[in-house]
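Kindly go through the entry underneath: sequence plus fold tokens. Please state briefly how this chain folds according to its tokens.
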Amino acid sequence: MSTVLDQFDSWKKFLKDRVAQGKNMGLSEDTITNLAYEIGSFLDERVDPKNNEQAILKQLWDCGDESDRHTIAKLMVKLAEKS
């Protein structure tokens, strides 16, 4: 997975593919957003940012509360879908 995280465009494509898989499996938008939130929490705790985009996302994640983090997760899903 580390190669996926190296380039932000690769990460967006990976996320887009996973969102599409989830939708094909019948997952709701809320479920997909909650999964994105869990992934964001995992990455925040265990993975150092590999590029400027990830560093900015980490700073936003770290300064936000739980509601803000859910919003970031939802926006990342939307960004991935539009990529």
User: Anything to note?
Assistant: Residues 53 and 75 are 14 Å apart (CA to CA). The mean pLDDT is 89. The first helix runs from residue 2 to 6. DSSP finds five helices and no strands in the chain.
